[in-house]
């Protein structure tokens, strides 16, 4: 029986070589071997990896059948109140969400949250993924207040982690846009100002995104655009134009002339026309 490190080394090799057709039989073989040897730790760990593989490849029925098997085994081993059980439930919730079974996903997440609250300290970073998942599900139900609060809680976990400035800023930006959906523009603007200061303090933005930075750049552009919208609503058109122009520049450098970039440029053009009209027709 290979060690868990050996299994992951071989799995990473398959992924690096893009031998996707070999991933499932390799992982199922490892699980069968672990089951025969009653090595349930490896069985559950590799089962979680296979669960993620099924989700990412859209094999939802296989994923749901596997998740039931893993959860039942963990209950038999009396692990149902552990953070490991909660982590598996979060993965199962992600499968349900990807399969369009949002209500079921939310129930799994709620149960996982109750376990985490008992088993982990409040500032544990494992809460962040759970809060984000629950926020997305709540947003899909138009429960924007609760969704925003969860993202703000996630951001607060990173408050004393300066190395995570960009992730915290991403969370604050998403929370701010949910505040905008509630028409709480002042609250949203304050969150965006804080997010902007974190992005700029990180020293990595703006500019062409490195590998893994595209998501941060997308949120950074969204923060700038949101501040532009807030300024526009206050009829501070020059400030709005400056934010929209910067958002368009970040979007173009990251994603090229995408639909999002085009819309930002249209906003800029509309404000320029408005400012020109105001100059020609002063009150």
Pick out its properties.
0% strand; mainly alpha; 283 residues; single chain
Q: What's the short version?
A:
With 283 residues, the chain is an all-alpha fold.
Give the averaged pLDDT, no decimals. 91
How many E-type strands? Answer: 0
Considering DSSP H and I runs of 4 or more, what fraction of the residues is helical?
A: over 70%
Order of helices and strands: HHHHHHHHHHHHH
Radius of gyration: 23 Å
Shape: elongated
Low-confidence stretches: 207-212
The percent range for strand residues is: under 5%
Distance N to C terminus:
82 Å
Main sheet makeup: none
**Count, helices:** 13
Structural class: mainly alpha
Q: Mind sketching the topology for me?
A:
Layout: H1 4-16, H2 23-36, H3 40-56, H4 60-76, H5 83-98, H6 102-119, H7 126-140, H8 144-157, H9 165-181, H10 185-202, H11 214-233, H12 237-255, H13 259-280
Helix pairs in contact: 1-2, 2-3, 3-4, 3-5, 4-5, 5-6, 6-7, 7-8, 8-9, 9-10, 9-11, 10-11, 11-12, 12-13
């Amino acid at each position: 029986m290979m060690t868990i490190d050996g299994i992951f080394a071989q799995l990473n090799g398959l992924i690096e070589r893009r031998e996707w057709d070999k991933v499932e039989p390799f992982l199922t073989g490892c699980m069968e071997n672990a089951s025969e040897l009653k090595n349930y730790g490896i069985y559950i760990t590799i089962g979680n990896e296979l669960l993620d593989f099924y989700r990412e490849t859209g094999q939802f029925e296989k994923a749901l059948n596997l998740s039931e098997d893993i959860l039942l085994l963990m209950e038999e081993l009396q692990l149902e109140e552990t953070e490991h059980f909660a982590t598996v439930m979060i993965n199962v919730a992600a499968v349900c969400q990807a399969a369009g079974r949002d209500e079921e996903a939310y129930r799994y997440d709620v149960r996982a949250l109750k376990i985490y609250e008992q088993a982990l300290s409040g500032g544990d970073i494992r809460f962040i993924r759970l809060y984000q998942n629950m926020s997305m599900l709540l947003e899909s139900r138009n429960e924007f207040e609760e969704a925003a609060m969860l993202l703000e809680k996630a951001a607060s976990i990173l408050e004393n982690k300066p190395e995570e400035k960009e992730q915290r800023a991403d969370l604050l930006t998403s929370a701010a846009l949910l505040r905008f959906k509630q028409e709480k523009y002042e609250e949203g603007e304050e969150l965006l100002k804080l997010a902007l200061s974190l992005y700029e303090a990180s020293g990595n933005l703006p500019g062409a995104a490195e590998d893994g930075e595209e998501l941060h750049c997308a949120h950074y552009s969204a923060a700038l655009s949101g501040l532009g919208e807030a300024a526009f609503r206050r009829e501070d058109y020059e400030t709005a134009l400056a934010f929209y122009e910067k958002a368009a520049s970040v979007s173009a450098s990251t994603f090229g002339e995408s639909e999002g970039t085009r819309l930002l440029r249209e906003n800029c053009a509309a404000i320029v026309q408005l400012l020109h009209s105001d100059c020609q027709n002063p009150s």
